[in-house]
Amino acid sequence: MPSFPRLRGLFLFAALPLLSGCNAVLLSPSGDIALQQRNLIIISTGLMLLIIVPVICLTFLFAWRYRASNRDAHYDPDWHHSTVLELLIWAAPLLIIIALGALTWVSTHQLDPYRPLARLSEGREVPPGTKPLVVEVVALDWKWLFLYPEQGVAAVNEMAAPVDRPIQFKITSSTVMNSFFIPALAGQIYAMPGMQTTLHAVINHPGEYEGLSANYSGAGFSGMRFRFHGLDQQGFDKWIADARASGATLGRDTYLKLEQPSERNPVQRYASVAPGLFDAIVNRCVEPNRMCMSDAMAIDARGGLGIPGARNIASLDEATRERLGLAGAPPRKYVGAMCTSTADLTL
């Protein structure tokens, strides 16, 4: 009677055909950038297999040919060098490394996420004068916020874009580092607090695709997913109209509540967004009593505030302290205002 481990192995082998139903999205993408990245993976793997496969085959060949029981194998204990073998051993890997280096150099520039798209797909260039769809992305704990500055709407854990229209993502984070990733669209790019990263991409086929965070960010990381809708222009206009019909407004106070950690948030849509909200998020100054990082850096670039600025400090108000989880903690001081002498003013 077969043992249990053997039966378990047979069951696992019989279950292998079930894997044929898996959707290997990285190998069958729907966006041109992801498609080029897929091709890069295939080409690189093929080049490396040119060495790996012969080495594996020759290992088995040598082991079989020079086995102890093979009395016909030539035995030469004084052998120490072969020019032909040396050329094969070093020339083939060197040529493959050169090819991989050239491929990496070209693809690094062509697929730079900050580089605007030059084509929509193979053989189709971006029409002159085409304006990309701008989407501002904010990684929150643990959800995604998408702002559409041109359309004036926003959504949580859902976004949409027209097929065959370039998309420019502007990406940041509210607290910790995350990674914005839509496998069918393009490779991942990090979202970091106080910074803005950029990704240019295009979706070529209509459909519903999954987006996620590819960088661990705490307790709710596993549920930090969203839906990306690739739509025709009519479908995208309807999606925008539905967002405007929600009637909700994403003001700064609403954002500060939305920013609080929460898990597996349902989709939310906003009909309007406070002006300059994304810039305030990047510059860490959504609250009215905080100085924007851009202003602080501009002051530092002019030499800083010196002693007068160091004296001009204030504590956070109780409501802000409670929202930041600082209630009961020792008071912390922050710059409250900036004073400039009249001698420094340019009239």
Topology:
Layout: H1 4-15, H2 32-65, H3 83-110, E1 119-121, E2 124-125, E3 133-140, E4 143-148, E5 153-156, E6 158-162, E7 167-173, E8 178-182, E9 186-191, E10 197-201, E11 207-213, E12 225-231, H4 233-245, E13 249-250, H5 252-258, E14 268-270, E15 272-273, H6 277-282, H7 293-301, H8 306-311, E16 313-315, H9 318-323, E17 333-335
Parallel strand pairs: 3-7, 6-12, 13-15
Antiparallel strand pairs: 1-2, 3-4, 4-5, 5-14, 7-10, 8-9, 8-11, 11-12, 16-17
Helix pairs in contact: 2-3
Index terms:
single chain; alpha+beta; Helix Hairpins; Immunoglobulin-like; six-stranded mixed beta sheet; five-stranded mixed beta sheet; 35% helix; disordered C terminus
Q: Which fold does the CATH topology of the largest domain refer to? A: Immunoglobulin-like
Number of strands: 17
What is the annotated CATH architecture of the largest domain? Sandwich
| Main structural class | alpha+beta
Per CATH, the superfamily of the largest domain is: Cupredoxins -  blue copper proteins
Structure description:
With 347 residues, the chain is an alpha+beta fold. The chain folds into 3 domains: 24-66 and 82-111, Orthogonal Bundle (Helix Hairpins); 124-283, Sandwich (Immunoglobulin-like), CATH 2.60.40.420; 293-335, no CATH class. The chain has helices at 4-15, 32-65, 83-110, 233-245, 252-258, 277-282, 293-301, 306-311, 318-323; strands spanning 119-121, 124-125, 133-140, 143-148, 153-156, 158-162, 167-173, 178-182, 186-191, 197-201, 207-213, 225-231, 249-250, 268-270, 272-273, 313-315, 333-335. It has a 6-stranded mixed beta sheet with strand order 10-7-3-4-5-14. A 5-stranded mixed beta sheet has the order 6-12-11-8-9. Strands 1-2 form a two-stranded antiparallel ribbon. Helix 2 packs antiparallel against helix 3 (83-110). The longest helix has 34 residues, at 32-65. The protein starts with a helix and ends in a 12-residue tail after the last strand. Mean pLDDT is 85; it is low at 342-347.
